[in-house]
Write a structure and sequence with these properties.
Elements (H helix, E strand, L loop, with lengths): L51 E2 L26 H14 L5 H9 L20 E4 L2 E3 L2 H12 L4 E7 L5 H7 L2 E8 L2 H11 L7 E5 L12 E6 L8 H5 L1 E12 L3 E10 L2 E11 L10
Parallel strand pairs: 4-5, 4-7, 5-6, 7-8
Antiparallel strand pairs: 1-10, 2-3, 8-9, 9-10
Helix pairs in contact: 1-2, 2-3, 2-4
The structure holds S-adenosyl-L-homocysteine (SAH).
The site of S-adenosyl-L-homocysteine has 26 residues, from strand 3, helix 4 and strand 5.
Length: 288
């Protein structure tokens, strides 16, 4: 399934917010191990709502590992700590084995990223609407993408394309020293800013712009996760991946698949196809 692919240079562009996080990346990170992709699961494609997996994985993995500090807890009438524990336990049974990622999911109260009316559904493993025709990704997808992109490494810079409400950016903040998240819909960019504000995540930078161009001024990135599906993964993003880094993105139109691309050299990228998924479309340009 692997193929190598030559690329054209990316066009430069866009906005980057002030960078106040001065922790310095140790540069190129070594690849800790070989591709950790699950086997591709064929068939039983059952379209669901957006930003979800189509064929659920059923893999049991061992339980272990430390927790990270929790984000500020709202008094919401939901016992969200316990609900998140149940969500994390479920993610484990569904094959998510990266303890850093699970701890980050545990730490972030997902109900604070959706409307009040949907808060009671925030710990279901489902995508939920966030307005403007977009959705907050299913927790399994969020964990799956971040774990695949992380590949057990300490991440310096990570880029998310498609901030939406900011949930995945908040989870990423638990596993990367610096997170850039770009959104093309101004209202969602602002929504995410408001939703993230109470968490005071000093390592998250929100960018308004077309993520198909990436964020060249902050590149290279040790990990890139794309939360919307294009017919093809934009070359600009492949160019902004650090050598040894991984990009995880859905690819396709009506039928989509999660794709993982590892940059193995200045001009070499290795592609691995993961499971079928359904995401909202990656669109070019911005919406004011
Ligand atoms: N990451 C979000 C998911 C948001 S849904 C979460 O945590 O749940 C995907 C988002 O990608 C939408 O908000 C959509 O507007 C955005 N998007 C689509 N194309 C984009 C592009 N070219 N650049 C930036 N964002 C894009």
């Amino acid at each position: 399934m692997d193929r190598r692919k030559p690329l054209t240079p990316a066009a430069a562009h866009t906005v980057t917010p002030a960078n106040s996080n001065t922790r310095v990346s140790t540069g190129r990170l070594p690849v800790a191990k070989t591709a950790s992709s699950l086997p591709v699961r064929p068939g039983e494609a059952k379209p669901t709502n957006s930003n979800t997996r189509i064929a659920p994985a059923r893999v049991r993995v061992p339980v272990a590992g430390p927790a990270r500090p929790a984000a500020p807890e709202p008094n919401h009438g939901l016992n969200s700590e316990r609900m998140r524990s149940a969500l994390v336990a479920r993610l484990r049974t569904q094959g998510i084995a990266d303890e850093r990622v699970l701890a980050a999911v545990q730490a972030i109260p997902r109900h604070r990223f959706v409307d009040e009316a949907l808060a009671s559904r925030a710990y279901e493993d489902a995508a939920l609407p966030i307005g403007h025709g977009q959705t907050i990704s299913q927790p399994w997808i969020v964990a799956r993408m971040i774990a695949a992109a992380r590949n057990g490494r300490e991440l310096g810079k990570a880029l998310e394309v498609g901030t939406g409400c900011g949930y995945q950016a908040a989870v990423l903040a638990g596993v990367a020293r610096e997170v850039y998240s770009i959104e093309r819909i101004k209202a969602l960019h602002e929504l995410a800013r408001n939703r993230l504000r109470p968490f005071k995540l000093a390592n998250v930078r929100l960018v308004f712009g077309d993520g198909m161009q990436g964020v060249p001024s902050a590149a290279p990135f040790d990990a890139i996760v794309v939360a919307a599906a294009g017919l093809k993964i934009p070359d600009a993003l492949l160019q902004q991946l650090a050598v040894g880094g991984r990009l995880v993105a859905p690819e396709g139109g009506a039928r989509q698949r999660l794709v993982m691309i590892e940059r193995t050299g200045a001009q070499s990228w290795v592609r691995t196809e993961l499971e079928p998924v359904r995401f909202v479309p990656l669109q070019s340009g911005v919406l004011l």
